[in-house]
């Protein structure tokens, strides 16, 4: 499965420490296979003293693993403050190995977080319904409540900071632990302590958690001729819901379209190709080059509803990966105009491996290029019409510029 998201809509938990003995056993089994050990020897791999003795006497043991277990045992037996448990050290070793790659997109996701990622990819989950990020001074900042969701109905606003959950401060917690407290089963109640700019003191808000349908698409007519559709992420529902929204706007009389990909962090590669196909005639969408030296082109086909209508695409610095595939393909084909700011520059592909304990390993194995062979990674896509984001609340200079462009074309 491909997933290239560099950031994600939250009310979900992506990384955290969970019970991980299974991954330790899997790591031992992988080593045992390489060292020629039999299944009967596996017990020795789980006992520190026996493990070290076996490795020291086994001439077939790779030297690198011998050093690893030597360090493991010295920490376990000689470290004054007491070594962390096996789970913590194992996940630390995995993360340390990934850190040597200096690639933020190759990542390990423990089982509990992985289960929530799969839940989010399905398009729904239980929670309060909001996009959030870690607050600079601790807690969780609400970027935007889902329209009509529990957080919205409870009166929470963009910019609010969750400081405590059911009386438990989350200011000192990492994002994973904090989100674990915020999330909960549908119909359960949670009291959030909120800090809000302009309010002298924090205040409590009661929110009833619900099953949340991730708002993949929002659409409306901006005037009698211009339809607007925003795509928030490339989940499994993206192309189908966008197709439906475009059809509805055309039925309402839209003579031109604005596709808003701002703040869209990406998602699944197949969805990026399918979304581009909605607006492009038959042709190339992207070029993919992988670790095996293979090159593959992804193509669009004729016959979709948005292929002929005048088109403007909104992008900004948080339009990433799958968003950049779509934007780059539209720009290279002269199919529409890009309006806004230079995109994020995340043009690599991650293969997602479901591991035996329920965890996930994402491994970068390929890079993307636009149909005109422009690199996306580290470069981003420069819009045709550069418009900075609005400084004043309520103003949208980029949307206004796209509207002006389309009106000029009519």
Defining traits:
Pdz3 Domain, 6-stranded antiparallel β-sheet, 6-stranded mixed β-sheet, 410 residues, disordered N terminus, 2-enoyl-CoA Hydratase, Chain A, domain 1, 3 domains, 12 helices
Helix-strand layout with pairing:
Layout: H1 21-35, H2 42-46, H3 48-57, H4 63-78, H5 86-99, E1 107-109, H6 111-121, E2 124-127, E3 130-134, E4 140-145, H7 150-153, E5 161-165, E6 168-169, H8 175-182, E7 189-195, E8 203-208, E9 210-213, E10 217-221, E11 226-231, H9 238-251, E12 256-260, H10 269-279, E13 283-290, E14 295-300, E15 311-315, H11 322-332, E16 337-340, E17 348-354, E18 360-369, E19 385-386, H12 397-409
Parallel strand pairs: 11-12, 12-15, 15-16, 16-19
Antiparallel strand pairs: 1-18, 2-9, 3-4, 4-5, 5-6, 5-7, 7-8, 10-11, 13-14, 13-18, 17-18
Brief rundown of the structure:
The protein has 410 residues and is an alpha+beta fold. 32% of the residues lie in helices and 24% in strands.
Write up what this structure looks like.
- The protein has 410 residues and is α+β, with helices and mostly antiparallel strands.
- It folds into three domains: 21-109, no CATH class; 124-213, PDZ domain (Pdz3 Domain), CATH 2.30.42.10; 217-409, Alpha-Beta Complex (2-enoyl-CoA Hydratase, Chain A, domain 1).
- 32% of the residues lie in helices and 24% in strands.
- The protein has helices spanning 21-35, 42-46, 48-57, 63-78, 86-99, 111-121, 150-153, 175-182, 238-251, 269-279, 322-332, 397-409, and strands at 107-109, 124-127, 130-134, 140-145, 161-165, 168-169, 189-195, 203-208, 210-213, 217-221, 226-231, 256-260, 283-290, 295-300, 311-315, 337-340, 348-354, 360-369, 385-386.
- Strands 3, 4, 5, 6, 7 and 8 form a six-stranded antiparallel β-sheet that branches. It has a six-stranded mixed β-sheet with strand order 10-11-12-15-16-19, sandwiched between helices.
- Helix 3 runs antiparallel to helix 4.
- Mean pLDDT is 81; it is low at 1-49 and 54-59.
């Amino acid at each position: 499965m491909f997933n290239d998201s560099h950031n994600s809509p939250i009310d979900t938990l992506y990384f955290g420490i969970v019970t991980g003995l299974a991954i330790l056993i899997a790591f031992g089994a992988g080593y045992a296979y390489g060292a020629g050990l039999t299944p009967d020897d596996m017990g020795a791999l789980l006992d520190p003293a026996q493990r070290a003795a076996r490795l020291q006497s086994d001439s077939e043991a790779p030297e690198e693993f011998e050093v690893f277990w030597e360090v493991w045992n010295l920490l376990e037996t000689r470290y004054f403050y007491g070594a962390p448990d096996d789970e913590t050290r194992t996940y630390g070793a995995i993360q340390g190995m990934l850190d040597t790659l200096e690639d933020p997109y190759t990542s390990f996701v423990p089982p509990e977080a992985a289960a929530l990622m799969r839940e989010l990819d399905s398009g729904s989950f239980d929670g309060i319904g909001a996009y959030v990020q870690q607050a600079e001074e601790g807690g969780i900042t609400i970027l935007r409540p889902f329209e009509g969701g529990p957080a919205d109905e409870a009166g929470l606003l963009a910019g609010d900071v969750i400081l405590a959950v059911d009386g438990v401060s989350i200011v000192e917690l990492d994002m994973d632990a904090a989100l674990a407290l915020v999330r909960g089963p549908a119909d359960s109640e949670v009291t959030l302590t909120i800090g809000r700019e302009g309010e002298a003191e924090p205040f409590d808000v009661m929110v009833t958690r619900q099953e949340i349908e991730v708002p993949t698409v929002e659409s409306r007519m901006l005037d009698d001729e211009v339809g607007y559709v925003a795509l928030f992420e490339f989940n499994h529902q993206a192309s189908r819901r966008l197709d439906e929204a475009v059809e509805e706007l055309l039925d309402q009389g839209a003579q031109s379209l604005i596709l808003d990909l701002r703040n869209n962090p990406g998602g699944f590669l197949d969805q990026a190709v399918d979304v581009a196909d909605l607006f492009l005639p038959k042709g190339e969408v992207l070029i993919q080059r992988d670790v095996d030296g293979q090159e593959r082109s992804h193509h669009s086909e004729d016959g979709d509803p948005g292929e002929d209508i005048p088109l403007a695409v909104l992008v900004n610095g948080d339009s990433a990966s799958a968003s950049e595939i779509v934007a780059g393909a539209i720009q290279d084909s002269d199919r529409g105009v890009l309006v806004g700011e230079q995109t994020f520059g995340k043009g690599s592909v991650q293969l997602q491996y479901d591991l035996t304990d329920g965890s996930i390993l994402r491994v970068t194995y390929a890079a993307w290029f636009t149909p005109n062979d422009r690199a996306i990674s580290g470069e981003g896509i420069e819009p045709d019409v550069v418009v900075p984001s609005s400084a004043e609340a309520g103003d949208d200079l980029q949307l206004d510029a796209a509207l002006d462009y389309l009106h000029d074309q009519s």
